[in-house]
Specification:
- This protein has 310 residues and is of the alpha/beta class.
- It has one domain: Rossmann fold (3-Layer(aba) Sandwich), CATH 3.40.50.1360.
- 35% of the residues lie in helices and 19% in strands.
- It contains eleven helices and 14 strands.
- It has helices spanning 45-62, 78-88, 94-97, 119-127, 129-134, 148-161, 204-216, 223-230, 240-245, 261-271, 278-287, and strands at residues 10-14, 17-21, 39-41, 67-70, 100-103, 106-109, 137-139, 167-170, 173-174, 180-181, 195-201, 234-238, 249-253, 299-303.
- Strands 3-14-13-8-4-5-7 form a seven-stranded parallel beta sheet, covered by helices on one side. It has a five-stranded antiparallel beta sheet with strand order 1-2-11-12-6. The protein has a two-stranded antiparallel ribbon with strand order 9-10.
- Helix 1 crosses helix 2 (78-88).
Length: 310
Amino acid sequence: MSAVSPDNIKRRTVGNNVWLGRQEAASQLSRLRAQELKYEVLDSEEAVGRAQLEEIERAASEKEGDLVIILLGGRGAQALYRIIGEMAEGSEIDNLLARLHVFTQDALAPMRMENSLSFVRDFERLLGESFFKKVKSFTPMQTDTDDLEGALTLYLLQLESLGGIDIFFLGHGPEAKAASHLAYIKPESGASASDLAGVIPISKSILEHHINKFKVGGSAVTEEDEAECRRATHILTLGPAAILQARRIVQSIVDASTAPAKRASFARVLETEISEDPEQRAAQLDENPGLWLRLHPNVRSLILPDVLEA
């Protein structure tokens, strides 16, 4: 790993997208071996949550010292958060929580951190006050600053100073033409294997989807918070380099019944033949960022049966 320094983080632009990373990582892309994505079909969202908790407990048993995990927004880990939140009210997992450095993976910006439509507020609602008191640290992406890129760089440096990511919890986001996104790496955003994080322009339709999702999920949203959220212009996101460097990826897809486009887009990730030609491979990954998962050698994919329905 490179020395942790702001000077090592390089900025590049692709259209209106800004990416932060290390250029030396770009040469790794052609050497990465494409993997078959093997998935496990579980019978309930609760079972997925239990399996995700088992992943954290297994990582803790196999490593001395602290653990670094990246939380997943949306539906994919809500059962996990409910389970952990309930357990955090007692003392059963206190030793585990005391070893956790917890980071978020994306955020709308600019926006006040206390806005009820931020992922941080949703994590607080699901995980509960005891969880945040007991974990070793919690680091969200800062969205209430005039220097989003500077704050995101500091976030990356803090993440690296802790030794990198032990578990990166990921979902699967459907896109047009059965493409997909990971974290918030969007199709045609120009993300590369060197990019640790990015600042991506946001569309009105994505904002509308985000607001509706939070309302349906039970968040109490004020008119002021909704108006501020609608003024957000960008999404902050971790990039392909952060995904590839994580020691373990745990993916979950639990909401294909309410987001049926996930079925075709997940099938396309499974079935695509990833080229060994560097230029063709880069084009494939940019057109369908869900494929980045296929280049990681240590992935567990947890799905419900409805993901496989025709």
